[in-house]
Design a protein that fits this description.
Strand content: over 45%
Number of helices: 2
Helix content: under 10%
Distance between the termini: 54 Å
Number of domains: 2
Shape: globular
Number of strands: 29
Length: 385
């Protein structure tokens, strides 16, 4: 469907995408690790994340002719792609202003929106301003909403953010005598900036989260990374050496979102992380200590290759996790006697390492599973605190 806004022609994608559809948000961070691997410097190189989409379409029998010709002839056009999981019902419209809450939908000034009435034709409008001020009882009052470039008349309307896109690279398609299914790789031109999630609980001046790690099958994959150089002349002995003081652990943070609210909140969380830039604390959720006794600020555990560089722990009690710092310790006769702060809970179910992580990639990819279920997997990398 062709539409024209400000003398610019666009192709509006109105066909429902298939389940293979995904979207990606990418920051860019330059990471410089120290010689011994104990610290690193991270420099942001993008002010706003770039967005891209993989859009899977399909047509059957008589519809294949139109979709084939459109795909062929519109390769170099700019597309408008609705964001259905960020739609908002706004009721009856008869103005150039849509009054609504703007905090939970990614529409900025100069963005285009799709307006779908309960009955009637689809309309595209340009947002020229966020909110407006009105005089109410001789007082100036701010009204939240979107000011449009022209009047809109619609009953029981729903609005959708639109992303301006170009086709990135080639288009692949599956073709038969009754089916034409192209896969479009789209690069967004007007990347939206999402609100940053509010600051959570803090630990050592960084964010701390107690979000669970979902298993991929029956177990969680963990990789221990080392810096290793091997000198081998291939005709005799060989040697290895490293600059790093300790290995680093990496794992996958798998998240399943079961509602549009959770989907939007995770975007805000990712924007708070800014890709690999901002670190956060997270328990290992593993059984890392065999407890001998625990009372108040004293914790006694078996000495099983005690790691003296991991002095931050998370304690699970009655289903709730709390954070603690090992302030001092002594090792004697196969046990480790530790002093911790703050005081320990009375009933301890598990003690895990509390580690500082950052994302292992600047990109988050959302995979749409249907029925408002979205899944993503984020690699996380341990840092030395």
């Amino acid at each position: 469907m062709k539409v024209s806004i400000d003398d610019q022609e666009y192709i509006l994608l109105t066909q429902c995408p298939l389940l293979d559809t995904s979207e990606r948000y990418t920051f860019k961070t330059d990471v410089h690790k120290s010689y011994n691997g104990s610290t690193e410097e991270r420099i942001p190189e993008l002010d706003a994340a770039r967005q891209a989409m993989t859009y899977s379409l399909s047509s059957y029998r008589a519809e294949t002719v139109g979709l084939f010709n459109e795909t062929y002839s519109w390769m170099r056009k700019e597309y408008l792609v609705p964001q259905p999981l960020e739609s908002k019902e706004v009721g009856n419209l008869a103005d150039d202003f849509i009054e609504c809450d703007t905090d939970d939908i990614s529409i900025n000034a100069d963005s285009l929106i799709l307006i779908q009435p309960e009955s009637g034709a689809l309309e595209v409008r340009k947002v020229i301003e966020i909110g407006r001020y009105e005089a109410v009882n001789n007082e100036t009052v701010y009204i939240d909403g979107f000011r449009l470039n022209q009047l809109i008349l619609a009953n029981d309307a729903t609005i959708y953010p639109l992303r301006k896109c170009i086709i990135d690279g080639n288009v692949s398609a599956q073709v038969s005598n009754a089916l034409f299914s192209p896969m479009l790789s789209l690069r967004v031109l007007d990347n939206a900036e999402y609100p940053i999630a509010e600051a959570p609980q803090q630990y050592e001046n960084e964010d701390i989260y107690f979000m669970p790690l979902l298993l991929d099958g029956d177990y969680l994959d963990i990789e221990f990374q080392q810096h290793q150089n091997i000198v081998d002349g291939e005709i005799g002995a060989f040697w290895q050496f490293t600059h790093w003081a300790n290995p680093l652990a990496s794992k996958n943070l798998r998240i399943i979102m079961r509602s549009r609210e959770e989907y939007y909140q995770l975007k805000q969380w990712f924007y708070r992380r800014r890709g690999m830039l901002n670190p956060f604390w997270l328990p290992s959720y593993e059984h890392n200590f065999n407890v001998v006794s625990a009372m108040d600020t004293t914790l006694v555990v078996k000495n099983e290759q005690f790691l003296s560089n991991k002095l931050n722990i998370a304690v699970k009690s009655n289903g709730t996790w709390t954070d603690h710092t090992i302030t001092s310790y002594t090792i004697n006769s196969g046990i480790v006697n530790m002093q911790v702060s703050p005081s320990l809970p009375t009933k301890i179910e598990r003690i895990s390492y509390l580690d500082l992580y950052r994302l292992g990639s600047d990109t988050i990819e959302f995979m749409f599973k249907g029925n408002d279920i979205i899944e993503t997997t984020l690699p996380i990398v341990e840092l030395n605190p």
